[in-house]
## 1
Amino acid sequence: MARPGGFEAAEQQQQQQQEVLSRQQERHYRLLAELQALVKALPSACQQRLSYTTLSELALALLDGTVFEIVQGLLEIQHLTEKNLYSQRRQLHSEHRGLKQELFHRHKEAQQCCRPHNLPLLRAAQQREMEAMEQQIREEQRMMDEKIVLELDQKVIDQQSTLEKAGVSGFYITTNPQ
């Protein structure tokens, strides 16, 4: 007895869907096994925080490739931010080096024009000026470093938020280093 054409097509479509689901399930198990292997390499305190359920949910999130694309985008943004911050820090260091050289040359010229009996007073004043500049440079460097840390912390929050919104298990906004 011949089956109607629509029934065969539906049956074939159902079989194809089952094959796709079967391949996805195999891939899910493979990703889960890879994640479990990665977790075994972590310190035991970190291992305890990553349950089987969390790893399974992460493996599911990795199935369609969207999370990889999101992470790649976040990584590119992070690298650009790091390069920019490094450049800013290097620029500040260069400016400080220029200021020190300028001050050194001014001091040297002043010493060459100074009368010998005034030289000790001049050197003492120049030493105070150099120490004040060094203090200012340390303060500016500290402020720059704090700015860098705050900006990197904000990038981490942005990354956490993006991954949370994408539905990646275990991601939420936190400032807790654990």
Note: Residues 10-50 form one domain.
## 2
Amino acid sequence: CNALSSSPSWFCFFSAKDMKHRLGFLLQKSDSCDYSSSQSKKEKISSSQRLSQEEVRKWADSLENLIHHDRGLAAFRAFLKSEYSEENIEFWVSCEEYKKTKSPAKLSPKARKIYDEFISVQATKEVNLDSCTREKTSHNMLEPTLSCFDEAQRKIFTLMEKDSYRRFLKSPYYLDLVSPPGAGCGPENCKRNHTHTLDCNSNIISQCA
């Protein structure tokens, strides 16, 4: 205001106040645009992650289809957890990840970790293997290779396929996902006490009480 000494003091005050008002308006507009942009991105992500009925129905074709689909694997894992048998799918997943190991130097420590967690006598999450398979896998620990858990993994896969997978297809964890879109929770459409669906982070959440 000193530079404009010829201007009345009230003019300087009005200009500063006017500029402050304009700046506040622009900031509000910017925040609004950022919020709209954020909401739009969330909607696009949500849309891209929605499960189609066709995808879910394919899970009933085979256990292979189910556990090789990220959302299917999450649903099956949640079901097994409800039955206190999630160690089976955790072992299978660990074996899949182990077979992707590229560094030979990492094979032994990774193999030992899986063995100690799922197969050894003192395993914290011991899986149900016959003595022959367990003994063979133990022998494989002497010189671990990418295929050292293959037989044990096949046995656990077969166990899940013949047992828990069949129960999963009859459970709300699957039935509520494969039901027609728009089927509400009225008496005709919601005979079960709870429904389960998958959120964007592949977690099971309860929807209908």
Note: The chain is about 60% helix and 5% strand.
## 3
Amino acid sequence: GGSASRSERLVNTQFADLADMSASEEIPVEGEITVPVGAPSPDEDFSTLDEPVRETIMRDLKAVGKKFVHVMYPKKSSALLRDWDLWGPLVLCVSLALMLQGGSADSKEDGGPQFAEVFVIIWFGAVVITLNSKLLGGTISFFQSLCVLGYCVLPLTVAMLVCRLVLLASSGTVGFVVRLLVVLAMFAWSTLASTAFLADSQPPNRKALVVYPIFLFYFVISWMILTFMPQ
């Protein structure tokens, strides 16, 4: 009983000393959190809040145009990965879906897939390929992969435009052969362009597992283009 009482008195004495210390001594807690700011460099990003809307739109259009050029002349470049956007893929998807629109929505004899079907196939396919790439150990981000896959639909959009023009001139065997050659060439172009941008982001021993879904993705789009017949 005596040892327990001494222990309690010792603990109470220590707490009393700490209370007196905190009451008697003032510890400064206020301060200033600052981040050192160096001299602005010429390459530093500038704010676009005070920029005219016209200049902002023109700059974005030029960026989209440069990405189209990179797709038409595919080479190993980080342009599509560094400054990714989804404006170009959206324009290409809408354009391709509109050209594949064969008739009215309630038509029973529609010669081509409806707008929503094309839209869903393109974006859902791109998302599946991107998830497959990430699961296999890809090093690029989700939206970077969507950007590349979307921009590389450009050759197939051109193929669809050529096929529409060929169908206006001839729908016979000669027209089919011309459309077949154009679609095959643009299919190969889209596949090679996308793999040129995405191949380096994959592990060397898994590149085939990434290229195969891309091949199927553009093959389905090419098949829709080749089998399209206007109403």
Note: The CA atoms of residues 176 and 205 lie 39 Å apart.
